[in-house]
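Quick entry between incubations.
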Amino acid sequence: MNKPKDQEERVTPIQQSLADAFNTAQYRLSGHGPRKVEVLKRAFEGISGDMDSDMYGKGETIEQFQREMAEYLGKESAVFFPSGTMAQQIALRIWCDRADNKRVAYHPLCHLEIHEEDGLKELHGIRPILLADSGRLIRLEDVKSLAEPVACLLLELPQREIGGQLPAYAELEVISAYCRSKGIKLHLDGARLFEILPYYNKTAAEVCALFDSVYISFYKTIGGLAGAILAGESQFTEESKVWKRRHGGDLISLYPYILSSKYYFEERIGKMEQYYLGAVELAARFEACPSVSVRPSVPVSNMFHVHFAMPKEKMERVLCSVYEKSGVGLTGNLREAEGGKSCSFEFSVGDQAAHVPAERIDEMFRQLAELSASL
Amino acid sequence: MNKPKDQEERVTPIQQSLADAFNTAQYRLSGHGPRKVEVLKRAFEGISGDMDSDMYGKGETIEQFQREMAEYLGKESAVFFPSGTMAQQIALRIWCDRADNKRVAYHPLCHLEIHEEDGLKELHGIRPILLADSGRLIRLEDVKSLAEPVACLLLELPQREIGGQLPAYAELEVISAYCRSKGIKLHLDGARLFEILPYYNKTAAEVCALFDSVYISFYKTIGGLAGAILAGESQFTEESKVWKRRHGGDLISLYPYILSSKYYFEERIGKMEQYYLGAVELAARFEACPSVSVRPSVPVSNMFHVHFAMPKEKMERVLCSVYEKSGVGLTGNLREAEGGKSCSFEFSVGDQAAHVPAERIDEMFRQLAELSASL
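Done. Structure below.
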């Protein structure tokens, strides 16, 4: 199958010039800004040097944040992990062991399937069943049509690789009810859970109540350094700590990630609606340009994918020119699609959008519309 | 088998008072000082906020340090890992896969056997053969007497759990030569490699030349936050990156560990002889006290174990009194041995020893000798 790579790996020499144009643009419309040491320094500015390190998963520095996140997610208990890759494999392993069944089900473009070098299979011997076509969301009928029993179903909300799409909340509820009735554990890949709450108009705890286990991330829209939380019942999270040690994730000190996650969580959790509304507005403006379309057509989070009906190399030249003329950068790389006929990129609204003067954004869209029409 | 736990887990309510006495003592003779956020802040004080993050194992921030460590260890290539637990399991997995043999050999008190919740077995299906008695070092004859072929032999230098003992360098050379002749890969658990170089009077590269793969740690005597390096030939380290992603250790940003490791490596790598000589001197003074013995009797690194020929609870009261009267703390916890008849603790010389006034140290040993003689 076609395995899209993480953005950082997609840069080829030809893309370098687009990356350069993006990196040197006066403004950037997406994200929170470059990942620099400043992000760490800012988070630690107000933290006393006298604060104790966590020690192999113990101590107030880690336990307090875990309690806060458990409460936020409405779960009994939560464990901080260095990465979602580690947290999610472990969640699935625990559910598989409990069911004595090494099969799980997830979307073909699930993070575990395309970004983790098959860790789930190679380390845990778990066999995933891919539900739905890669281009659409998992539906109740997909779950009902499973030919063999699975220990766990993983749902990613929103489904990142198809632009950040979401099922209707009612569909989520029936999938959850169906899984409970069949003894299938439901796990939430909530890497971007915060970002969908304004659209669903639900609290995190309300959404998480539909799931047996939940993973959330602190370096996407929260903008922290790295780190993840895995939450569920205490027996589940206690087991996850044993696996965290087995994976080599039970570090003597995780506080660089814990304290920065806490800092940026507090700074940005209240801005998710602003980011979401910004995405809805910008998506409509992209959609209005010739040869440009967005997916989903109306965003349900702060992210969407922008598709260009022209080859990647051509579009790179167009974008370089747009950035240069408007001073506004959109992305540093494009992903090829349809055998080279089209291309796309992922757009996420963060703090930076608010700092770009409106007339620059207008100019950027004017240039984009003009140049893409002329090709 | 008897599985000693990490220090942090050994604290029981009764020990708490010893931990308190240690934590509140005016001076501490061991280590570099408490693990507090100050350790991070100091490392980052001189680092520009404008420095780029590493990105999923790529970028100058990580690659430069990896090159420096590869050179220091005399290996072709090196990879930064969040933990040694992760790095070492992966090293053994690669050697097992190459040999198509899931058996490795190591000491009964190897870190992988007693501190990692059996990750090697549970995640990698590798079956370790325990060489030597737990109370002594692995010798050439142990390796020669292996009844079945193994893919890899792991040697830990020094062998921490028995006080930090070392084989004679000549024995190491013959073990290495024997393994090469038999096609057995030799892996170095070098968690405390820096610390033994003064005793061996060798460079790191000279020691590492005897091994096919090497792991080193940055939070023991280097005193960093966390982090490890795995080094070897490029093909080996490239494979290790794939496994690092599978384990969930290929974080978007590892720079909090990388840059602090680099900072404290540069600060302390030149002090290993000072620490080692300090350990030799202090060990002799412990040994001179009644009912007290050290292991090894003459240290070969900055560490040794102090054994008391009396029950743990009694000795805790003695130590509390020693700390109180001398103002010098030695340890926050004791490990029970011989079915409760004796107890011990691990002592490591770091930066703090040099800050304790000589007359306080004299007073501490005077009190210890007096009190332990009176019991």
